[in-house]
Each structure stands twice: as structure tokens, then as C-alpha cells.
Amino acid sequence: MQPHTTGETDGGRTGEHTPGLHHVTAISSAPQATADFYTEVLGLRLVKRTVNFDDPTTYHLYFGDEVGSPGTILTFFPFERARPGTVGRGQASATAFTVPEDSLEYWLERFETLEVDHDDPHERFGETVVPFRDHDGQPLELVTGESDVEPWPDGAVDTAHALRGFHGVTLDSLEPVATATVLETLGYEARESEGERTRFVAAGDRASVVDLLERPRGERGTQGAGTVHHVAFRTADDERQQAWRERLTDIGLGVTPQRDRQYFRSIYAREPGGILLEIATDGPGFDRDESVDDLGTALKVPPGLEDERDRLAERLPDLEVATPAEVER
Fold it and tell me: Does residue 305 lie within any of the structural domains?
């Protein structure tokens, strides 16, 4: 697929664009193993432990920088008995984090010490990439580059080498030309191609990259532990989100009404390539019901489930996360 654009960042309407990713949500297996990997191995902070609003008998865990800034948040629906999924077409097939240019040796040594499954570094679009997998086999990447994200100073990874939020995601679309149209509608610009991969870039300062694959003979993915459930893009507020809803509807997508996710508000649409997309507001943020110091330490439930908090808590598995004082670097 050759780079192409619509001529304007939003298909020629208002000149607005999404600045990049808000969060990525994946499916994992045991909650404790998920928390251990993302806090103790990758050094992210558990900024919120709540329940899956659509299935409150399971957790929804959010990992990110110190405050859960948009563009840093990897979230999970962890199911104790989840079957492994297979990564393939119709899915987001890799989530990439930004690391400083001089940090790769640190991370390669860390992966070896902690027995993290990883590949050797290679070059992609002039950047150095290290692919690796989490405890469920979910494909992740480290990409060298610049970011305005300040790492959490109390995490398990030294701040000189810590993750700086997302670099971007790779989408393995069933219909890459149609997916490209959706990305362009969101304000992404196709920059260049290497083999089966085309790079799209948004105008934001972080989490601004989407790589789109064209693999007509690739196998279709199946949902399960180790796969991405959906990819969320940023928007500033409700007014802009409504404008995006109208715009996506205009290009033929079925878009949900707004849903209140407590810490942001969301709309969803499945694009023609099979990938579930979300547009999420930047606010109100994860500190609306906890202080910054206490983020992620208590189970939070939406107002409609407050009367069932104790019952839900009893059904959820125990989850222990090291405090900053207990962290070993």
C-alpha cells in the first residue's frame, strides 16, 4: 500500500485532528501476573483498579505514568481462565513504547535477567525497535525516540531508562485501504512505506504513530489472552468528541452513543478492517476519586455499583502491587 492522503488532515472539513493515542486495552490472563509484569518488569504505575463496566465480576486495570496521562495508558481486562488468543489480521498486532536513545542496552540486559521473551534490535523507519512479549505472549515493542512524557519516579525502572509513554500501535487490518481512510479522517498523515508496513503520523507530541500492515495472506486473529481488545484515540472534550462521532458516521461507520467511563468519556466504532476503535476525552482524569499519591491502591466502582462494592470485591481475585518503598530497581 502506497502512502496517500485525503489532502487535508480531517478529510477537508474543520482542520481538527486527534493528537494521537489515548490508551490501548488488551485481554490478559491472571490479574496478579499482569500487575507483576507491567509494574515490576516494565516499571509502569497501576493508576486505577476498577471493574469491567460491562462485566463487573472482572477487573479493569490501568497502567501508565504517574497520573495516567493520555498517551501512556495500557489497560487490561484480566480473566483468570482466559484462553490464549492469536494475534493476526483484524487486530492491533503490537503496542510500542518510547524509550530514550541510550537505553536499549539497559533494557536488553533487563530482559535477559528477568527472562522476558524478546528479539534482537532492528531498524524501522530510521528508528531502533526491540520486539518483546509479555507473560501472555502479547506483542510489545520498545522504540527509541523523543517524548514529552516524564516517567514515574517511584517505579521499578530507573528514570533515566524508563518508558516514556506510547510510541504507537501496529494495525493488521483486513481492509487496509479502508482503514487508511479512517486514519486520515482522524487526521493521520501517511508518511512512508517499508514492505508491507505504511506509517501514519498524527500531529501530537506523544503516542502519534500508527503503522498499518497490508498482509492479504496473513491469518486472521482470534480474541483471547495476549491480544488487544481496542485502541483509543484522544480528543479534548465532549464537544470535539461529538464532532468526531458525526464525522465517523458520515464516512459510514456505526458509532455508539457516548459512554461514561468515569475517568474519561468514550465513543466506539468498528472500522472496516475489523479493529475496534474508541475516541476518549482527555478528562476528567484518574485523580477524580483518588489523590495522586493513592492512585491504584483501592478498588473503585462506578456509582451505579456502589451498593454492590463488597460483593464484587469478594468475588475478585486478590491483587497485590508493591508500594514505592518496596520497589527494587
Answer: yes
